[in-house]
User: Fold this.
Amino acid sequence: MKEPPIVRIGDSAGLLELLDLAKEGARTDEHIFLGSSPEQPHQRVFGGQVLAQSIVAAAETVDAGRHVHSMHGYFLRPGDAAKPITFGVQELRDGRSFSARRVHAYQDGRPILSMIASFQADADGLEHFEPMPEGIPAPESLPTTADLLGKIDHPAAQDWAFNRPFDVRHVQEPIYVNAPGPGDLSPTNAVWLKTFGPMPDDQSLQRAALAYASDYTILESVLRRHGVSWVTPGMSVASLDHAMWWHRSVRVDEWLLYVQESPSASGARGLGQGRIYSRDGLLVATVAQEGMVRLPDFS
Assistant:
């Protein structure tokens, strides 16, 4: 099996290279694809990457006129960014309007992610959506991640500041380094995001890229409820599962507003929920993720 090239990701070209999977041919009842990972500060694969690559792999086995409208995935093991990822896609069903696919992402012969995704042909029907919050400042008025973290001499800070394919701008005070304490932060957080460069019109790639970005800040809503920053000593955070629904066509190379909140945390787990809007106020996607959150005082 040919090894995939090492990917360095920091712009749209890097993101597209990451989502360009090599098809290896079916060996069982699965379609097999091979993907690579960019270099990571801690050599762990970013969860959003595996979600996006799994969606691309599944989309390759579905008729071109059908686009992913929902996915439900479980993160089973941490991925190693130094190793390739094999994606096995099983065809579960092809109906008149919907197609279902199961995707397993493997490393060393063991699944690191298990996902089921559903695809639908375009159709007309009832229309409504929860409106976008009012009073949100324009993204151009907000600092970039590079503005916030670029001067911090730490591998993770430098990676977040300069090696992401998305421009992410926080509406509320971010909690990368500091958090004032419980009750002093807004329990709802929002970020504007878009890719640094243009992306192809292909909705399969656009929606996969949005899945990639949806994993950036969703668990921040859990931490904000308790005034906890990302650099809290001894804290351990890991994504457990991820669900996403695409409601309308989307462009990730145009500004999107990602509004997030956490309705519950218990049992060392926290639930984050998010809604993603186009700049003109259309709800394009909804996200939910549960994560493990362990703090030293509760271990």
